[in-house]
Amino acid sequence: MSSFYHVKLVDIIDEFNLDVVYAPSDMDKTLIVTDDINRPGLQLAGFFDYFDASRIQVVGKVEASFADRFTPERRRDAFDKLLSKSIPALIFSRGIVPFPECLELAEKYGIPVLSSTESTSHLMSAIIATLKVELAPRITRHGVLVEVYGEGILLLGESGVGKSETAIELVKRGHRLIADDAVEIKRVSAKTLVGSAPELIRHYIELRGIGVVDVRHIFGMGAVKQTEKIDLIINIELWDETTHYDRLGLEDLTTQILDVAIPSLTVPVKPGRNLAVIIEVAAMNNRHKKMGFNAAREFNDRINVHFEEKENAEYSESDPVI
Fold first, then answer.
1. Hey, how many other C-beta atoms are within 10 angstroms of the C-beta on 8?
2. 141 included as an active-site residue
3. Which of 179, 212, 251, 287 is most buried, most CB within 10 Å of its CB?
4. Do the beta carbons of residue 114 and residue 22 sit within 8 Å?
């Protein structure tokens, strides 16, 4: 897994409709490599300890008002120190007009200067959210990702165990395919994994004996989805009579992917088992658990109460009459 990901600055400009105030000739080669953004108020005051020059810099109303109090000479010196750090871009929010001294130094150091009419906090949160996804740590796993009743289900198992056939059956039942064979998984937060398909094989699925089919064209646009959060992992394996399988569901098993623990199940398969129905029930049961209802624990509690009542009744009958 590569440790370096990037987003082109021109893609950020297009996505957020940023106005280009100054663009150096090589701006299309500028890459964003960190998902953090900085407001350079302290830097305009001359404090550069712990300054990360790889971050996009956003000048809002506070920073602009602060710099507006400077003399032109001091303002030129402040922007000279900031822009000489080779930052990827400087964005002025709230429609603030960049200072002439800033544009002069931006041209000197080849730093793109951009502008937006959005509020500073809204603009920053939107860009950070996009960068979090685009620069997220990622890994590719062999499996199938489907959306069932709003739950992202990642099917794992040996080749030929029936993952793709199960996915097609789920699509026929009204659910959606995200990825077949290869699933690109990104960690977009400390607790969230999002899966998608590599662009080359997106919307395609392989069925042994038939070949490759285009799910989008056969079943329609409603049968596919670009990305989906991974809520549950189901490991499919051939039924082994010597293996003990959990029959109550009391064990809260998880699978670690990119240091995120995802609830997981192991489902054994053999002739006569309808995997699609089992996965639908697993998806609904997982939703119930997230909402605070655990059928297995409730059933276990009812059994314990039943035996306690029976034991107390037998104890009462055995007491000698005084």
1. 15
2. no
3. 179
4. no
- Whether 217 is catalytic is no
Q: Point out the catalytic residue in the list 163, 186, 203, 225.
A: 163
| pLDDT value, residue 240 | 83
CA distance 228 to 183: 11
**Residues 59-108: tens digit of each pLDDT:** 999 999 999 999 999 999 999 999 999 999 999 999 999 999 999 999 99
Q: Identify the pLDDT of residue 297.
A: 77
Amino acid 160 reads G
C-alpha span between 215 and 217 (Å, rounded): 6
Is 142 an active-site residue?
A: yes
Of 8, 181, 202, 216, which is the active-site residue? Answer: 181
Active-site residue, 247 included: yes
Torsion angles phi and psi, residue 210, rounded to 5: -110, -45
- Rounded to whole angstroms, the Cα distance separating 120 from 30 reads 22
How open is the CA angle 193-136-223, to the nearest 5 degrees? 50
Q: Would the pTM of this model clear 0.85, i.e. be above it?
A: no
Q: Closest by alpha carbon to 25, among 119, 106, 134, 118?
A: 106
Q: Please identify which of the residues 29, 142, 288, 302 carries the catalytic annotation.
A: 142
**Catalytic site residue from 247, 259, 270, 319:** 247
* Distances 182 to 55, 70, 142, 144, 203 between C-alpha atoms, Å: 32, 56, 5, 7, 12
